[in-house]
Design brief:
By secondary structure, the chain is mainly α. The chain contains 1 helix and no strands.
Length: about 80
């Protein structure tokens, strides 16, 4: 009976070590994913802001540009 318990204890300790290692790897992956998400969100916000700025600059301001055309007038 004692050997069975000792054997099971060894197996459980090995499994515990595996699960802790797996957990550490998962935390690292989660941290990397969180970092990537933050960088992408920042990039999206920056591009959206730039796009809004471009759109505002292209809106008419209420002024009219006068251009002079250099086409000759047809003679009669």
């Amino acid at each position: 009976m004692k050997t069975i318990i000792e054997k099971q204890l060894i197996e459980w300790r090995e499994e515990l070590a595996k699960q802790k290692q797996k957990q550490a790897q998962a935390r690292k992956v989660l941290e990397e994913a969180n970092q990537a998400i933050l960088m992408l969100e920042g990039g999206v916000q920056a591009k959206e802001s730039l796009l809004r700025k471009i759109e505002q600059e292209s809106l008419p301001t209420g002024t009219v540009e006068l251009t002079q055309e250099s086409k000759p007038k047809p003679s009669k």
